[in-house]
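Sample 3 of the quickstart, ligand fe (ii) ion:
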Amino acid sequence: MNLLFIGDVVGNAGCEILSKRLYNIKKEYDIDFTIINGENSAQGNGITPQSYDKLIRMGADVITTGNHCFKRKEAVGMYSENEILLRPANYPDGAEGRGFTVVDLCPVKIAVVNLMGTMYLESLDNPFFCIDKILEQIDTPNIFVDFHAEATSEKKAMGFYLEKKVTAVIGTHTHVQTSDETILGGHTAYITDAGMTGPERSVLGVESEIIIKKLKYHTPVKFVESSNPASINGVVVSFDEKSGKATNISRIIMH
Ligand code: FE2
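Result:
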């Protein structure tokens, strides 16, 4: 089977290019299942019911998020209502929503786990202990982990930690695609960051001049999404659905 993972979709530009191209990408790569990181899919970042609907309508099977999952007040209630919308699993007990889901494609089941790193991000529960507990509850070998983290070291460590335990560990959050895709231990597809689907000439999707001003003067600025042309970043993971073994991981970059 082939699974498509789309890296952090940013704002209108990201949603627009993906809605135009996703159907053909799925056809071209013979995709059976699609995961989209949608934590910045709303205009002004975060996720809203409107941007969630856009991602579902264009063909997402599961939507993952990260540190911006609860950024928008419009998102309140969304995580409890939608089983295929995930927030990081290592949020404290009692936080709205769920951190993993198992989708039954009859007879194949696909589990998707969303985890967040704790280096240079909020101090959530330890993601390593968290994934241990989750793996005990999952009854399929086809397990895909979106590890939303800032530090490359934390992502690499998680990849090795989950080697031979899951089908893929796919990093998100930095919006910069890395070229270190590999199959760990002959079983687990890994990439440090799948990249961003959004305005290409930008700083993580934001107008570069605004970020330069912020970094130069350290005075408040309003983030505005770049109006430059967008591109699509992601990966395709091919896997054997009986064993959960990944056989290939390929990066996608489309302009
Ligand atoms: Fe993020």
